[in-house]
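Hi support team,

I submitted a single chain yesterday and got back a structure, but I'm not sure I'm reading the token output correctly. Could someone confirm the output below corresponds to the sequence I sent? I've pasted both exactly as they appear in my results page.

Thanks,
R.
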Amino acid sequence: MVHGESRLGRGTTPPPAAASRLRVLFASAEMHPFAKVGGLADVCGALPKQLVAMGHDVRVVIPAYAGLGGEPVETIDLPFGRLTEHLVVRRLAVHDGVEVLTIGGPGWFERRTPYGYQDHDVLPFVLLSLAVGALVARARRRAPAGRTSA
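Hi R., thanks for writing in. Yes, this is the structure output for that exact sequence:
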């Protein structure tokens, strides 16, 4: 669905007013075309693009898998158990109007495939979840008055 088209293909859907424009952050293990194992990558590639077409501000965060690269935009020192993990947030690309970020740190996502359904897959995604929460908390603290959504 794009501006000017309803879900049923009839009528029009106006772009959202500035006050109702959402700031949306997706966190995913995969996103087409950057990292793909299955259908999750397809959905995470399509849904954010559709929300941008509807006038919303959308970003996606994926793990910093080997070979993805990107421009460093900030760092996060994240308490993780008894350690503090130094993580880097990188701007990977703007894909179909969606800003794509990666989060990673030494030894966490330096592999070519997102997951293989083994026990060693759990902790990296726990770390990713906590890092995304920290990223949202930072964004909320930096948001202008009246804008508290992530």
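A quick pointer for reading it: The radius of gyration is 17 Å. Let us know if anything else looks off.

Best,
Support desk
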